[in-house]
Structures are given as C-alpha cells and as structure tokens.
Amino acid sequence: MERPDWAPPEVDIEKPSIARVYDYWVGGTHNFAADREVAKAIADKNPLLPRTLRSNRAFLRRAVRELTALGVDQFLDIGSGIPTRGNVHEIAQEGNPDSRVVYVDIDPVAAAHGRAILAGDPRSAAILGDLRKPHDVLAAPETTALLDFSRPVGLIMAAVLHFVPDSDDPAGLLRAFADRLAPGSYVVISHAGMENKPKPEDVPASSQTYLRNVSEVYWRDTAEVTALVDGLDLLEPGVVPVPLWRCGPDGDPDGFGAQAHALACVARKN
Questions:
Q1: For residues 227 and 206, is the Cβ–Cβ distance under 8 A?
Q2: Which phi and psi (to 5°) does residue 6 adopt?
Q3: Phi then psi dihedrals of residue 164, to 5 deg
Q4: Any domain includes 5
Q5: Alpha helices in 5-139 (DSSP H)
Q6: Pairing with 245, which of 13, 14, 182, 263 sits 20 to 30 Å away (CA)?
C-alpha cells in the first residue's frame, strides 16, 4: 500500500488503529483498509455505535461554532483523536481565522497523525498527553506557545471523561484544568451515558469489543454528568443527549435523540 504524505513513517498503516476506526465512522479520510474492515464489522452488529459517534462529532462542531460566536478564539481539546475533516481547528478558524487550537491525545497513533496533518498550520498543534496529568498538558511547550490563559479558552473534553473511573476523580481532573481558565471560558463535555445507565450485560457485545480496545468505559447518567461541571454555569439546554444539544429550529430531524448513548453539555466559568 502506498503511504500518503499525511501518514507518519512510524505508524503502521496495515494494522488497525482505534483512532482511525473512529475517524472512518465520523466521516474522516485519515484511515486505511484495515481500519475500515474493523469499523464495518462492528457497525454491522451495532449500527447505533457509529451513529452515536457521528452525533457526538456534530455536537462538537455546534459547540465550537457557538463559542466562536461568543468570542472564544482559543481551544484546548483533551482526548481529541485524529484532527481530521471538520474538527475543532477548521470550525473555529471558519469563524475566526486567528483561532488557535491545541489537540491532546494519549494515543501515540492519534498524536502522530495529528502532528503530520497540522504541520502546515502555525495556529494548531497536536501533542501526546494524558488527561490525568493536567500540569504536564498545561505546561507543554505547544500549549504555552499557542494559548493565553489570561483570556477565555474553550476547554473540550468530548468523549473522554467516561474513560476515567470514579477512583481517579474525573470531576477533580476537570477542575484542575478549569482552575487555570480565565473567567468567561467554557467547558465542552460529551460522555457515554443516558438518563438510566445500562447494565454491562445490556451493552451490545460489539460495542464492548470496540470500547475494550480503547479503554474501559464508565457510563454515567444525567445527574452524574451534571456533577462533573459543578461550580460552572450550564448553558441551556443543560445536560441532554448529544443530538439534542442546540440542534436548531428543526429539532432532531432523524429522531435519533435519546437512542444516542451519549450526553452533552457546555458550561461557562464566571
């Protein structure tokens, strides 16, 4: 297989990557035959999973547009995956060409692809980093070079806090990042879950296989996700299924709604 320019030489393009499987599901182009084969096999058994992930990506785009319209021009995206088509830097820079974005992911494959994709963009960077080590992320040279924490920042934690068990205090980790943010900053969250959390045996086996390849997932309900942003001001409509967060005047046109096994919210730091 011919290696495209955006594929770093250290990445094995014939071995499936969870980051690239996700990229395929959300409509990206930074994936290969091995990734697409795995993605299609899982989707055949559980079509709701990729649909939920696409709804999550659509929510992220809506949230970034909202924050850009509110004057936010810098973003820190924790657990970003591969910054492929329609990701934060593209959406933010549509609203404000001077917007700056730092992507952070614990997956070396995602970080390597991110660095290659963003090589020509001086306002964006992708770094290898761990949500559980806020100081290291905030002190990284790319972070300090691109982001000014004396001004509002959009902190994005989309589909990442559900990998953090209660024993690691996900709310405390979020606060460690939020404490560094200036007043007028925003926190964007999406999280695996629903009003009534499913039992492990109720989660389709194909979803369990995919999620085990990423990390163990800790489902949380609406009250638990709301508690993560305690001390911040929730924007309307609060914590809702990802397709329903400010979905526009047409509402939820395909009726997916609560079938999406993910919740979303945006909160402001005053």
A1: no
A2: -80, -5
A3: -105, 120
A4: no
A5: 18-25, 33-45, 48-69, 88-95, 108-117, 134-139
A6: 182
CA distances from 40 to 43, 141, 182 (A): 5, 38, 43
Q: Residue 7 falls within a domain, yes or no?
A: no
Q: Tell me which of 92-101, 178-187, 190-199, 251-260 is least confident.
A: 251-260
Name the maximum alpha-carbon separation found in the chain.
52
Whether 3 is in a domain gets the answer no
Domains identified in the chain, total number: 1
Strands 186-192 and 262-268: antiparallel
What's the angle, vertex CA 64, arms to CA 178 and CA 140, rounded to 5? 45
Which tokens in the block code for residue 264? 């979303």
Rounded to an integer, what distance in angstroms lies between the CA atom of residue 138 and that of residue 140?
A: 6
Burial of 2: CB neighbours in 10 Å, binned 0-12, 13-18, 19+:
exposed
Query: What contacts 195, CB < 8 A, 6 or more positions away?
Result: 221, 222, 258
Residue 206 domain-assigned (yes or no): yes
Q: Mean pLDDT over all residues of the chain?
A: 85
- Is it the case that residue 199 has pLDDT exceeding 50? yes
The pTM of the full predicted model, rounded to 2 decimals, is 0.83
d(CA 159, CA 156): 9
Range of the domain at 251: 18-268
CA distance 261 to 169: 22
